[in-house]
Amino acid sequence: MGFFVITQNNSKMRLEELEKKIYRPGEEFGERPRSPEIFSPGQREKKIRQGKWLRTEKSKLTPKQKQYLRRSGIFLIIGFLIAAGFMIWRSFISFDKSKVKLEISGPERIESGDEAVYAVKYGNKSKITLKDIKLVFYFPEDSLLIETANEDLIQSSELSDLGAGQESWIELKARIIGQKDSQKKVQARLSFRPANLGSRFENQAEFLTKIISVPLILDFDLPNRLVSGQSFDFSLEYLNQGEVAFKNLELKLEYPAGFNFKSAEPEPLERNNLWPVSDLMAGGANKIFIHGAIEGRENERKSFKAQLGVLRNDQFILYTETVEAVQISVSPLFVSQTVNGKTDYVAKAGEVLNYQIDYKNTTDVGIKDVVITSQLDGSALDLASLELEKGSFDGLNRVITWNAGNLPALEFLGPRQEGKVEFRVKIKDSLPIKNYSDKNFSITNTVKINSSQIPLSLASIQVSGQSQLTTKIASQLTLEAKGYFRDDLIPNSGPIPPRVGQATTYTIKWQVSNTSNDLKNVKVAAYLPPHIQWLGKVKPSEEDLKYNSGTGQLIWSIGDLAAATGLLLPVKQIAFQVAITPSLTHAGGLVELIGQSIATGKDSFTGLELTSADEPIDTDLPDDLTVNQQDGIVAE
Question: pTM for the complete prediction?
Answer without folding.
Answer: 0.56
